[in-house]
Amino acid sequence: MNLLTIIKLSLVSLRSNKTRSFLTMLGIIIGISSVIIIMSVGAGAQSLIFSQIEKVGSNLVGIMPGAADADGPPAAAFGIVVKTLTHSDAAAILKEVPEVMAITAFVQGSETASWQNQKVDTTFMGTQSAYTSVEDVVVEQGRFFTEAEERAMARVVVLGAQAAHDLFSDQNPLGQKIKIRRESFEVIGVFKERGTVAFQKPDEQIFLPLLSAQKLLLGINYVNLMRAKISSSDEVTPAIEGIKQVLRSRHNISNPANDDFDVRDQAEALKALTAITDGLKFFLAAIAAISLIVGGVGIMNIMYVAVKERTREIGLRKAVGALPKSILKQFLIEAALLTLLAGVIGVIGGAMVSGLVAVVANYLGYSWKFVVSLFSIIISVAVASGIGLMFGYFPAKKAAKLDPIEALRYE
Fold first, then answer.
1. Spatial contact of 42 and 280, defined as CB atoms under 8 Å apart
2. What's the rounded Cα separation, in Å, for the pair 254 and 196?
3. CA 389 to chain centre
4. What is the per-residue pLDDT across 213-267, written as a single tens digit (0 to 9) for each?
5. Which of 39, 121, 170, 361 is deepest in the core (most CB within 10 A)?
6. How far is it, in rounded angstroms, from Cα 339 to Cα 304?
7. Tens of pLDDT along 255-274?
8. In whole angstroms, what is the distance from residue 211 CA to residue 208 CA?
9. Average of per-residue pLDDT across 176-199
10. Global pTM?
11. Which string of DSSP letters, residue by residue, matches 121-173?
């Protein structure tokens, strides 16, 4: 019996038990879909990270409080409050590191801002007058606050485009007074719309002088983050070393292993985040792949049932001259076809869900690429077929070894 005939017989057998065949395939379908979704979403997340870091700029350096491993994020990235940096550190860096063109420190908090009867839940950012230079942002209406206003703890704010719309609708916000935590602030400017930057939405935020945010709203004297603009991308490496030396000197640190801060450029940040997403992606894919083993066990059980149900058929075929290897091939091919079909359905289902995730993410304003690699498809289908052959072998071997006389007697 040639291979084509065996495949036709296998398809006839599978079609005769459609419900059972589908339930048998379900474990493989779920496993393959999960692997495809995880790999695709992981690739999409990496594309999002890359696009967000590109928006920040290649000649920017981030300085965060707290120590960190070379390939891992600092403690502050996990939301842990670390108080090792102050705004005077930023002033020292600007003064002593020649490659630094501008630097600004940040603090932030969440609060309800109100104007007349209008209230908006927002994030306020305390920053410095160099913010517009560091971030290359444009004030569309009014102006940004000055260094003198910053030193004087002036009660002034600049609104993100969406925050201005939410509070004032179509009215001119300039000169109006808004309240944050019972403190009154005058609106002196509105930023041009920017979209999502570094996973934040500055259009929805309110910006005010650093000291005003620290003393009037938060009651702190440390900063959450500093960002420095370097004269050129070629000067980033010496700038990072200069910043480290300044901070070690100010914090009385002689051993670099005891650094209580972390300084990184965008390439290092991208590398660290990519390593994290890669590890998470493959870890989750490995967990999802366990369902393939469960599906394989299900296929083996169903094939054993099929051998038992078709014992008389096997005996009859052997009685008219079918060789054991033909019986073995038929049951192996049935198992392989089951898992191959399940793999194809799983790939299609996983790709559809991944596409939906990409559509939703892009609708929400994120730069999310839909990525389903040919490699992941080939591997998924090959693994599915391999599982069918592996778990289908023992039932097929049992069928091939059946004694024809005993098989014909089976009721």
1. yes
2. 39
3. 35
4. 999 999 999 999 999 998 887 788 899 999 999 999 999 998 888 888 888 876 6
5. 39
6. 16
7. 888 888 888 876 666 666 66
8. 9
9. 86
10. 0.59
11. EEEEEEE-TTHHHHHT--EEEE-PPPHHHHHTT--EEEE-HHHHHHHHTTS--
Token pair recorded at residue 325: 């290897």
DSSP string, 24-36: HHHHHHHHHHHHH
Q: Packing angle between helix 266-309 and helix 18-56, nearest 10 degrees?
A: 180
Burial bucket for residue 264 (CB in 10 Å: 0-12, 13-18, 19+): buried
Q: Using CA atoms, how far apart are residues 131 and 145, in angstroms rounded to an integer?
A: 10
Answer for the pair 370, 54: CB distance below 8 angstroms, yes or no.
Answer: no
CB atoms within 10 A of CB 17: 15
Mean predicted confidence (pLDDT) in 273-280: 69
User: Measuring CA to CA, how many Å separate 394 from each of 10, 24, 167, 210, 391?
Assistant: 17, 17, 70, 71, 7
User: Structure tokens of 232?
Assistant: 């050129």
In the block, tokens 């076809």 appear at 337
